[in-house]
Amino acid sequence: MEKIDNCPKCGSELQGPFCSQCGRPARSRAIQFGSFFNVVFEYLTNWERKLFTTIKELFRRPGLVIQSFIEKDREQFYHPIKFLLFWASINFLISQWLGVSAFSPNESQNEFEQRISKIFEEYGSFLWILCLPFTALGNYIIWRSKDPKFVHHSIFAAYLIGMNLLISIPLFFLKRYIPDPIWLQKILPPLLTLCMCTYFVYNWSKRNWLIALLAGILIFFFTFIGMFFYFMLAYILVSLSI
Fold first, then answer.
1. Which residue pairs from 115-119 have beta carbons closer than 8 angstroms and sit at least 24 positions apart in sequence?
2. Strands in 152-241 per DSSP E
3. Model pTM score
4. Cα–chain-centroid distance for residue 194?
5. 118 vs 18, 95, 189, CA distance in Å?
6. Cβ contacts of 77 within 8 Å, gap of 6 or more
7. pLDDT digits (tens, 9 = 90+) for 147-194
8. In the chain, helix, strand, coil percent, each to 5?
9. pLDDT, tens digit (0-9, with 9 covering 90-100), for 83-109
10. How far apart are CA 165 and CA 187, in angstroms?
11. Given 45, 108, 139, 233, which residue has the most CB atoms within 10 angstroms?
């Protein structure tokens, strides 16, 4: 008589290699030590492929990436929040390694203000993440008739801030190795940020460059309103701690 076993999943009696009720194999495949490495390798290569694809397409067609994620085609590109956290972390590590930052204490500031600026200098990479609602608000005010869902504008803002954190990394090297030029410290970083804002708006909205520029300026303005808000919050917290 042929041996009758029970399905390891549903408990049904079975004859043959598969369960007639749930279709599970009668015997689970033995776990091989190499399977651990296969999973890790698959995860890393998929992670790298999605990350580089996302970066490439955000440079070429940011509107496509944003719209694809909004429309639930989310497997092709890197998640916007993961993308933002990844580049904030890389930005932070490189700025700490090089000893430079997007925020530097001003010698004209008093000791109290320099203390606050020092906080921004050390943790500025992560403070941009906190500006996400303000950046999204700037885009929402302009395009709320096109897309009334604030969360969609937050996706836009997450990819935008992540890309600005990415393109600011070469500026750290320039600041580290070029002796303190005014254009590098005061002009180039905000100009690149404004250009990125305008480019994202133009590519996402498919409007003319003038409207995209005006929208980019508003997004830029609201982002720095957010940074000013956190500066004032730090000012209050530091003053209370003294």
1. 115/238, 116/231, 116/234, 116/235, 116/238, 119/234, 119/238
2. none
3. 0.76
4. 18
5. 65, 13, 19
6. 50, 53, 54, 57, 65, 68, 69
7. 899 999 999 999 999 999 999 898 888 888 876 666 666 788 888 999
8. 70, 0, 25
9. 999 999 999 999 888 877 766 655 555
10. 16
11. 139
- 186-216 per-position pLDDT tens digit: 788 888 999 999 999 999 888 788 889 999 9
Do residues 112 and 192 touch, judged by C-beta distance below 8 A? no
In sequence order, which residues have a C-beta less than 8 Å from that of residue 111 and are 6 or more positions away? none
The closest alpha carbon to 145, from 215, 210, 79, belongs to 215
Q: How far apart, in Å, are the Cα atoms of 106 and each of 114, 163, 228?
A: 7, 27, 16
Question: How far, rounded to the nearest angstrom, does the alpha carbon of residue 35 sit from its chain's CA centroid?
Answer: 31
Contact call for residues 156 and 136 (beta carbons, < 8 A): yes
